[in-house]
Amino acid sequence: xSLMVDAARVAAGINIVLLLGLLSIWIRNYREVPGxxxxxxxxxxxxxxxxxxxALAFYFNAPAxxxxxxxxxxxxxxxxxxxIAVLFYTNWQ
Length: 93
Hints:
Blueprint: H1 2-32, H2 36-60, H3 67-92
């Protein structure tokens, strides 16, 4: 089970790094072309960044959880990483 928690920690850490990158891209774009879409994307990144920071803190200080809950959280964290990576790649282009 510790391998699954480690995978979730790594995924949450990668999410944080990718979200910081997206946030910098979107803030730069907002300065060039202000608009409600850019504000929405910035808010999205900030909220998702907060969620991942809390998740990462939880993974390091987690109380005992049922193995099924750990597996589900790890899968969701990894899927979120894939989604954010795709979003980051398309915005980087």
